[in-house]
Amino acid sequence: MSRKYFGTDGVRGLYGGPVINENFAARLGRAAASWMPAKSRVLIGRDTRASGESLVAAIASGLRAGGAEPISLGVVPTPAVARAVRTTGAVFGVVITASHNPAADNGIKFFGPGGVKLTDDQEEQIEALLGANVPVDSPAEGSVDARGDYMTAALALLPPGALRDWRIVVDTANGATCATSPSVLRTLGAEVIAIGDAPDGKNINASVGSEHPALLAARVRATGARLGIAHDGDGDRCVFCDELGDVLDGDEVLTILGIHALECGALVKNTLVVTAQSNLGVDAAIAAAGGRVVRTAVGDRYVIERMRSEGATLGGESSGHIIHSEISPTGDGLVAALKMIGVMLATGKPLSVLRRALKKFPQLTAALTVRAKLPLEMLPRLTAAIAALEGELGARGRVLVRYSGTEAKLRLLVEGPTDAVVCAGLARLTDAARAELEIV
Q1: Of 34, 99, 318, 328, which residue is the catalytic one?
Q2: Angle, nearest 10°, between helix axes 280-288 and 250-263?
Q3: CA nearest 106: which of 20, 43, 205, 207?
Q4: What is the pLDDT of residues 399-433, one digit of tens each?
């Protein structure tokens, strides 16, 4: 059996569509409750989308119908839910969020014991238990201060007053981190210039946040800030902007954190875990510093699974999911921000200097919105183009073609020895994809 509803990061789609609606949420809640031990405590958080409250009530109804005890945490970052599951001993956690997607979308993420995301097999088992509709009655009640505990733990990562005389621009994407990240940074002494901090249920990720860092960069340049920090809608990602207004991606962040940890003897197993999406320059930089890079499939939960099997504690994605597993069981944008600031404090270097540690291989990407995700093996022209390009590049580069697990998009990546080779290669793949897929 293969998963029908779960993607790389939970169930996600247009609110009011065939999957993300109250009926399905209630059915999924009951299925999850049937899968877990009887009378399990389940913590439920959400982001700021207008559809979140009714979906919380729906999944809580399903959980209750299946014999579980749902507890609402209100609007909190995803990593705060994962932490609360781990620290309170709850059996399960649920987050109603579509992360970086537009406000019209929503989704459902699950965390198992210890605050760890479920495996593919576990999600399949829950899907197999989906039954008939469940009446939606009353919402879950709240009794756990997940937000306060999360912020207290974050404050402990830097000394009191460590950010005195720091000016930082923080973009919270009109999402779940509006009340957490700016507050923590201010408590540590920083002057915080906040943007994307006025959620109205409809503006989450709207031209702000980690997917849209242009405003962050402009505000850093205009205010002379020391850095900029942007989260996605649910707070498990972090994208940075240096003092010059230039944006860093997750590969640069992971390289900086990895090299600093190696220099301090703190990179456990001397291993950094990244995905197939990361630039090959990360491997070269970490190897030069005495470490090694291990790669996984795209998706932060696959990174976490590999980190656990390797015994590593640092990993992440180029999209900005950064995992410090000794602190948080999942990607945590605020922890990533504080860890990066810690490197700046320890070295006395600005981000514009620290980022030079990564020399990227030429790389181009494209994302084509498709009408239907036809299996790649059914696209002979595209698969032939992939094979030909891989043969030409050999060890000098790589090709990655995959469907997004959260959106109706085909993602293409080409990495190679020169910009010209990469550009031509991506054009060939794009032409082949357009010839065989209906591009919207």
Answers
A1: 99
A2: 10
A3: 20
A4: 999 998 778 999 999 999 999 999 999 999 999 99
62-69: average pLDDT: 95
Q: In whole angstroms, give the CA distance from residue 213 to residue 65.
A: 43
Q: Which amino acid is at 224?
A: G
CATH topology of domain 11-146: Alpha-D-Glucose-1,6-Bisphosphate; Chain A, domain 3 (3.40.120)
Global confidence as pTM: 0.89
Fold of 149-248: Alpha-D-Glucose-1,6-Bisphosphate; Chain A, domain 3 (3.40.120)
Among 3.40.120.10, 3.90.1150.10, 3.30.70.2200, 3.10.450.50, name the CATH number for the domain at 250-357: 3.40.120.10
319 pLDDT above the threshold of 60: yes
Q: What is the pLDDT of residues 247-261, one digit of tens each?
A: 999 999 999 999 999
Arithmetic mean of pLDDT, 103-111: 97
Domain span(s) for CATH 3.40.120.10 in the chain: 11-146, 149-248, 250-357
What's residue 405's pLDDT?
78
- Helix%, strand%, coil% for the chain, nearest 5: 40, 20, 40
Enter the tokens of residue 134: 């469940």
Does the domain spanning 363-436 belong to CATH 3.90.1300.10?
Answer: no
278 has catalytic annotation: no
